[in-house]
Amino acid sequence: MSSISGLVAVLLTVLQWAGRGLPSPVRPICDPRVLDRFIMEARDTETALRGCKAGCGVTGTFVVPLTNVDFVVLETKDTEEQALEVQSGLFLFGQALGAVRESVSRAAVKSLIDNNKSNIHSLGQVLRSLHIKDLSLSPVPAVGDSATRKVSSLSELLRVHTNFLRGKVRLLLTNAPACQQNST
């Protein structure tokens, strides 16, 4: 009996000692394969829903961010400005995909849209892992803003989403200071 209580005492001492430290910070997610998976899933959704017109029941217009990248302008922006642009874009895509999900009736389409919304949330987690400040409470670009445009079809929305991930999101993750420190 005393050997069991001694073992329990040692075990409790070790657990108490191990629990004293603060939880370790989230390690940066710099592996490009993570973003590649999100891009592949966005592209797969785009391909799967390309022919979905009357059956999807998606109507209306959606505000999306511009996807073009001016490298001269990009070089003048710091990481925080780039992060704000990416986070605002992800917010707009989340809003648009939420509206699409509400308007479709087919379960398969809803599932694909849900997956893309989940990936947008996961990208926010990736940005936090890179110690990029969450700027999602900052003002989101307005409809007439020069950083946005309107799209009127599901296929166009999904194409712009894929291009945004391949362009601005990839550049931000590639140039994030936390990833630069890991590569040295």
UniProtKB/TrEMBL annotation:
Pfam families: EPO_TPO. PROSITE patterns: EPO_TPO. Residues 1-23 form the signal peptide. The keyword Transcription does not apply. One of its GO terms (biological process) is nucleate erythrocyte development. Its main location: secreted. One of its GO terms (cellular component) is extracellular space. It is found in: Secreted. InterPro entries: 4_helix_cytokine-like_core, EPO/TPO_CS, EPO_TPO, Erythroptn. Keywords: Disulfide bond, Erythrocyte maturation, Glycoprotein, Hormone, Secreted, Signal. GO terms for molecular function: cytokine activity; erythropoietin receptor binding; hormone activity. Belongs to the EPO/TPO family. Hormone involved in the regulation of erythrocyte proliferation and differentiation and the maintenance of a physiological level of circulating erythrocyte mass. Binds to EPOR leading to EPOR dimerization and JAK2 activation thereby activating specific downstream effectors, including STAT1 and STAT3. This is Erythropoietin. It comes from Oncorhynchus mykiss. The gene is LOC110533936.
